[in-house]
Structures are given as C-alpha cells and as structure tokens.
Amino acid sequence: MSDSSYWNSPLIIAGKPYPRFISGPLDGITDSPFRRLVREFSKDELLYTEMRHVACIATPRAHVKALDYLQLERPLNFQIAANQLPYIAPAIERILASGVDMVDLNVGCPASNVIGSGSGSALMADLPRLESIVRTLRSLLSIPFTVKIRAGFKCKNAIEVARMLEACGVDALAIHPRLQSQRFEGQPDYELAAQVKQAVSIPVIISGGIVNFKMASMVYNTTGVDGFLIGRGMWSKPWKLAELAAHCQGQPFSLPITTVVEYAIKHFNLMLEYYGPRGLFAFRKHLPFYLRGIPEATTLRKKLVIETSAQEILQALHSLCEK
Ligand SMILES: Cc1cc2nc3c(=O)[nH]c(=O)nc-3n(C[C@H](O)[C@H](O)[C@H](O)COP(=O)(O)O)c2cc1C
Asked: Whose alpha carbon is nearest atom 16 of ligand 1?
C-alpha cells in the first residue's frame, strides 16, 4: 500500500472502520471531561477510557465514575484490569449496559500496586492466567475485544503472547514495546512491534513515542502497524487527533494561543462540573501543559499550580486570553 493510501484508509477492527489515530488510555488524564473536549475536534476517532479494575466495577453499589460518560464520547474502548475470574462477569455486565463500543484488557501497566496483585504487565509473565482471563472475557463479550500488551514483563515474549491472544479470538491488540522495568522511558522496541505485526493477522496498534505525524510515518515504515495509540502526545492537547488527521491529508494545523487558553478554561470548568471541588486539584496535571510556551504565562503558571481558588484561576486565564 502506498503511504498516502495507507493514511487515508481506515483501521478495521472487527469489521468496523476507525481513523488510524486513537486517543490512548492515560490514567488521571484521558477522563470524561478530556474526551468531551477531544470530541469537539474529532468525531469518529476511537477513544480509550483510563484503566479500571474489574473489582471496582463489579459491585452494584459501587459508584464508578468511569461509567459516567456521555454518548458523544463514543466510539469508546473501555479499559479494564483483571487478575482473577470472579469479578469479570458482573463487571462486564455493567460495562456492556453502559453502551461502550469495545472492551480492552490492560496487560501493560507497570505500576507496583497493579503488578503486585497479578494484573497489568504481570500477566505477560503468567500466560495460563492470562489465557483464562482472555477466554472468559471473549465468551462474555458480544462487542469487539482488544488487549494492550507490553514487550514483556522481564523478558520479551510479546510475539508468543500476541499469537495466543489471536488464537483466543481477540479482535485487535495494542503493543507498547517496552519491558515492565522500563515503565514509560527508554527507546520503544519498534523492531519487536514489527515482528508482532508479522506474527498475527489481527490489527496491531502501536503505543509509545508517537507525538506527531513525522514520528507516526517513521514508525509505520519500520513496523507496518495498522494504527497508532497516542498517549502523552494527547496530554492537554484535545486537538491532537485532529492535528494528525490534517497532516494525513497534507494539510497544516495550528491553533492561536487564545484558543489554547480558551480550551484550558473549558477543560477546567468541565472538571469542576464532573468532579466537584476536587476538579481543581485534578486540573493541576493539565494547567502547566496548556500554558507551556506562552511567554506571558511563565510566572502565572507557577502561581496557578498552587492556587486553591477556582475563581482566581478562571480570572487569571480570562485575563491572559484578553492580552
Ligand atoms: C500518566 C500515565 C498514565 C497511563 N495510564 C494508562 C492506563 O490507564 N492504561 C494503559 O493501558 N496505559 C496507560 N499508560 C500508558 C500509555 O497508554 C502509553 O502506552 C505509554 O505512555 C506509551 O505511549 P506514549 O509515549 O504515547 O505516552 C499511562 C501512561 C502515563 C504516562
């Protein structure tokens, strides 16, 4: 396939077409308020939720904020973590009732509390357990089912894992080609991703280091993957997928600084509305990124990340816009 026909053709998962760029899961970042903003720029792209453990979703009385999303956020891939079978069926029942389009199993999280319980990337080192979880999920899921893996836990076994997932009937897989010990740092092993792509027939999506179209093209040429999961490249940039889509068409994309600040204000208001007062603290993860590169905001940024009054933050952002 020539490069331009590749970029202008869809990624097909379980017979349905999606744009090749996808908003990946970032815990604490790609929540419902953020996804609503992404939808202002990108209507058809697949968005992942953050990871939620099945045990937190399974109990009927548990109020799972992650299940509070708007229909406009769809198509939505709901990501779960699981380490044992009992919670899976009740959790899946609630997830399906919420109307998501896909379910993704996280087999990549490196965090010690997650691997300590035998979920996330720990499953890369426990293939019998992984297989039984995947087979159970497949039998319960009438909608597409994807899995996000790593290069491996301590050793690189992604090819073996990918083949097993395909044999279990998984519809697509995403690979973040780093070992658990590398967490989110160091060069992703794109060669390994290329080998995984060669080893299976289901779509393979790459995660790791894709922040712009130039990088995506380079990684496509190395790996031949079918899609791109954008992680940190999305952070406080709800327009990122639209920017990548424009570049696929050879079109330029830029936003005036005032629009960027206006989106910071919108984002902050959505977080206050969704989380209540704790939205202010949650927004501190985003604020410096929105203001990065704005010369007038250098001192303001330092002041606003410790500010405890929502009114003060909003006022400061509004006056920055007026400047
Ligand atoms: C703050 C943060 C939170 C993350 N949360 C998740 C998560 O909930 N589920 C998941 O599969 N990966 C998660 N990841 C991993 C990313 O989805 C992605 O695989 C990784 O950051 C590499 O891609 P990138 O270089 O585009 O960021 C997270 C990464 C970061 C930095």
From this structure: 231
